[in-house]
């Protein structure tokens, strides 16, 4: 009996449509549109996409802000 191997390569998308970007951040589209400060890029006329790296920077910044707020709250209680 012979064996076969399967070679699959997956290329992860960097640029996301609005619905994909909302899903990537875990937000509904209406909440994403209201909350996200990331500016989309128009790669060609009529094609507006969000850069996943910019979304990551925004999310990481929110995490840093939350960490600082919780540290300030702890220090305030001391």
UniProtKB/TrEMBL annotation:
It comes from the Bacteria. This is Uncharacterized protein. It comes from Thioclava dalianensis.
